[in-house]
User: What shape does this take?
Amino acid sequence: MIRIARWVALLIAVVFGARSLFAQSHPASPPGMRWIPAGEFTMGTSDANSHPNERPAHRVRLEGFWIDETLVTNAQFARFVKATGYRTTAEQKPEWEELKKQLPPGTPPPDPWSTAGSSRDPR
Assistant: This one.
């Protein structure tokens, strides 16, 4: 979730506050892509009404990178998944050690037999 918030903040900063980061076509541009040169931007906010994972506002420096000029369609993503075997976070079995970092101390692990979709219930 924090990664998504960071990427959203980055895109907002690039589009609205850091238009100068967009360069003219890079000499060796791959088709349909733009080069974003290295630079700094302010990520996050100090607004008390924001979500805790959006605070505080802080400076971030990124190396240059390529970005698609257009959004990825569902069909393009499906081809990518088929070609690479990529699995989204939602498709991966969560690891208890990672989950418990987001829960109050002492929270017991979930009962594996009460998990939706479990087909090996011994009861």
In short: Confidence is low (pLDDT under 50) at residues 16-25.
